[in-house]
Amino acid sequence: MNPQALKKLTLDFIMTILLLLLMTYELIGRATHEWLGTGMLLLVLIHHIFNHKWSKAVFKGKYTPYRMIQTILVALLVLCMLGAMISGIMLSRYVFDFLPIQGGRSFARNLHMVSAYWGFVFMAVHLGLHWGMVMNIANKHIKKPSAIRKWILRGFALLIAGYGVYAFINRDIFSYMVLKEQFVYFNYEEPIVRFLADYLSIMCLFGCIGYYMRKYSKK
Fold first, then answer.
1. The pLDDT of residue 137
2. DSSP string of 135-203?
3. Angle at which helices 131-140 and 3-22 cross, to 10°
C-alpha cells in the first residue's frame, strides 16, 4: 500500500470512530462532544486536502452513474458538515463560548440534529462506496482466496446490517432525521457499548447500501 493511500485509510478509520462517538452526545458529556466535534471538523478539512484533486475535477470529464452518485453524496455530506459546524458553534458552551453569539438556539438545535443524523447516514453510505478499496487492499495480503471465507464474511455483514434495520427502527432514528422529534432521548442507564453497537450496526446497514450502489452503478 502506498503511503498516501495508507494516510487516507487511517484518516477514514479515525473519522468513523469519531462519528460514532459524536452520536453518543450526552452519554459522553457535552464538553467532550464539543471537543470531538471540533476534532472532526479538522479531520474533514484534512480529508478534503488529501482529496483536492478529486474536488478540482468535479466539473471535468464524463459523468457515469457512479460518479453522479458519488458527487451528489459528497455535496450532501458537505452541507451536513456545514450545518453541524455552524449550529454546533451557535450551541457551544465550552469550545466556542467566547464568541458573542446570542439567540437562535432553537433553530441551531434543530439544524444540528438534522445535520448530525443525515450526516451520519450519508457518511455511512460514503464509506460503503469506498469499501471495495479496503477489500482490494485486504485481498492483496491474502495468499489463498477462499470462496467460503468470502461468503461467510458477506453473511456476517448482512447479519449485522439486518440488526441495523432493527436498531434504526427501535431507536427511532428517522424521526430525528425529519424533526418529528426535536429532542434526542438518551437512556443514561444504558451501557455505552450497547449504544455504540447499535449505531455501528446502523452504519453497517447504510454502508452495505453504499457498497451495492457502487457495485451496480458501475455495471
1. 65
2. HHHHHHT-SS--HHHHHHHHHHHHHHHHHHHHHHHHTTHHHHHTTSSSS----TTS-HHHHHHHHHHHH
3. 130
**Residue carrying C-alpha cell 477514514:** 12
What size, in residues, is the chain? 219
Residues 6+ away with beta carbon under 8 Å from 100: none
Whole-number Å distance between alpha carbons of 129 and 214? 5
Q: Quick check: 153 and 200 in contact, CB under 8 A?
A: no
3-class state of residue 61 by DSSP: coil
pTM here?
Answer: 0.89
Distance from chain centroid for Cα 67: 19
- Residue 70 to residues 46, 48, 129: CA-CA distances in angstroms? 19, 14, 8
Per-10-residue mean pLDDT for the chain, 219 residues long? 72 89 91 94 88 83 90 93 94 91 90 95 91 69 72 88 96 94 87 95 95 84
CA gap 143, 38 in Å, rounded: 41
**CB count, 10 Å around CB of 178?**
10
- Domain around 46: 3-217
**Number of domains the chain contains:** 1
The answer to whether 114 and 193 have CB atoms below 8 angstroms apart is no
